[in-house]
Amino acid sequence: MPIANGFLDKKDFSNEFFFNMEVGFNEELSLFQLNDHPKPEKMFNKNYPFFTGSSEYMKRHFKSYAEFVKKYLKTNSRIIEIGSNDGTFLKNFDNSENFLTGVEPSKNVADIAIKNNIPTINEFFNTVSAKKLKKFVGNTDLICASNVICHVPNLNNLIEAVDLLLSKDGVFVFEEPYLGSMFEKVSYDQIYDEHIFMFSATSISKIFSKFNFYLVDAIPQTTHGGSMRYVLKRFKNEDNESLKKIFNYEDKNNLNKIDSCLEFKKNCEISKDNITNKIKSFKDEGRTICGYAATSKSTTILNYCNIGTNYIDFICDTTKEKIGKFSPGKHIPIRDINYFHENMTDCVYLFAWNHKEEIFNKEKNFRGEWFSHVNL
Ligand code: TYD
């Protein structure tokens, strides 16, 4: 596999980086994970092309996420966001009432947040940066993250860093793509270099209890095709009925055992056959195909299913950092959305299936056939 967000120029084709992407399951922690992964610096650097604010739906989601955590705030609370990207989440807090700090390793996105007056430090979040932060932030009441904890290979160090900064009655809240949803939807495109772990409530509870943190709530989210919001504290609350339900669901569906992974593996192979057959039959019928949204997820699909420019003419996307480049591994040209409007194909592979409402709403004029490897 290539780097999922490694959109590249023609001149870089010959020295493109590839790694062997393989998943495993840690039975002790019920943890679904990559067995090997590229160094984080290869993925999160000055060219990181993912901007949270590129989706209106995500902007609304982050506003409601901020409303949810406001109940944990006091007057003049200290809030840290790990992997704060372009500041889309922190923007929802009043800078004058709270002490906000974003921690973001990718310089290009951190710079956007800073430009928008979101105090941001351009570093990886770990015990080294946490010690520095502790000096000027002190004890933190709320630490948040979204789609980032699963990106951090040294989870132990990350939790130690949270432990260093979080006050005695502080709260750590984060959201990540959910293993249960990935299994249900067979959305194996969630597996790529950045997603080192695919969590469940069971795995989160087991991992954090090693550090005396307790999972006190887990709330399903529709974002990223099915995510879970985890709430962790240093002490246990009274029994939480909805959390119990989630643990029961995970037990019933064997999410804490390797059996569910083996079932998933079979389903992935079936999904691969189905999508390649579908694309081949479109071609046989003489229909043209393009991709919609050059997502990181699409890199897994295209490379695992071996779909290249022999089938897909181009992929359209709104991200200026991706437009004019080529997709990782398969080198399909990335075009802007206007190009799609002027060159509509007969069929469109919706790679951003998780944004389908937003995209279908924008593309009402498209009269051809949308398709994807998950149900639309
Ligand atoms: P997302 O599913 O968040 O991507 P990833 O798999 O990388 O997490 O989708 C973000 C990408 O989709 C980004 O490249 C922008 C593109 N996009 C569009 O081109 N148009 C749209 O309307 C939306 C919502 C996203």
SSE blueprint and pairings:
Blueprint: E1 23-26, E2 31-34, H1 40-43, H2 56-69, E3 78-82, E4 99-103, H3 107-115, E5 120-121, H4 127-137, E6 140-146, H5 155-165, E7 166-177, H6 179-185, E8 197-198, H7 201-209, E9 214-221, E10 227-233, H8 241-252, H9 258-284, E11 289-292, H10 296-304, E12 315-316, E13 334-335, H11 337-342, E14 347-350, H12 356-362, E15 369-371
Parallel strand pairs: 3-4, 3-6, 4-5, 6-7, 11-12, 11-14, 12-13, 14-15
Antiparallel strand pairs: 1-2, 2-8, 7-10, 9-10
Thymidine-5'-diphosphate (TYD) binds at residues 50, 54-55, 293-297, 317-319, 322, 352, 354-355, 358-359, 362.
Characterization of the model:
The chain is an alpha/beta fold. It is 34% helix and 19% strand. The strands form three sheets. Strands 5-4-3-6-7-10-9 form a seven-stranded mixed β-sheet. A five-stranded parallel β-sheet has the order 13-12-11-14-15. A three-stranded antiparallel β-sheet has the order 1-2-8, with no helix packed on it. β4, α3 and β5 form a beta-alpha-beta unit. α4 runs parallel beside α5. The longest helix is centred in the last third of the chain and has 27 residues. It starts with 22 loop residues before the first strand and ends in a 5-residue tail after the last strand. The mean pLDDT is 95. The chain binds thymidine-5'-diphosphate (TYD). The site of thymidine-5'-diphosphate has 18 residues, from α10 and α12.
